[in-house]
Amino acid sequence: MSDNVDNLVLEHLRALRGGQDRIESELREVAARLTSLEASTAAGRRDSAHNYEEIIRQQSSIDQIKARIDQIERRLEIVG
Fold first, then answer.
1. pTM for the full predicted model
2. Is there a contact between 80 and 73 (Cβ–Cβ < 8 Å)?
């Protein structure tokens, strides 16, 4: 009887260990996927910042062109 109980306990412990191994494996996979998502998010933010920087640079150029046009109009006395 004692052997049957011991075998039953060992069988349950093995099943628990197998389940724990599967959970650990899935957790590693989830962690890897999360890391990938974080990297993708960081890349998207970096691209967005780059795009915003380009918009600011273009707006600065437009402002400079407007200032030069205003100056030319004043010199030619064609301010409208």
1. 0.61
2. yes
